[in-house]
Amino acid sequence: MISGFALLTVNLIGSSYYLLQMGERVRHPLHPWFKSSGYIGQTAGILAFAMFLVLYMYPFRRRFRVLTFTGPLNRWLDVHIVL
Length: 83
Known about the structure:
Shape: elongated
Radius of gyration: 18 Å
Number of strands: 0
Structural class: mainly alpha
Helix content: over 70%
Strand content: under 5%
Order of helices and strands: HHHHH
């Protein structure tokens, strides 16, 4: 719920930036925030990377019995499905 609200807010605020042509975006005042290497772009990339790591941890948990201390498999599947 919160992540959906955050995405909607970022899209509404950044719509004036994202609707511009690529050459015009450089002069937009929100360019340092919304460019790929900007604050929002890098944060989104780091969050996506963390989500992929958690997604790939589920098959490891399922395959290796040594990881049973990390919790029940049905909870891992729930997190995997949500992500």
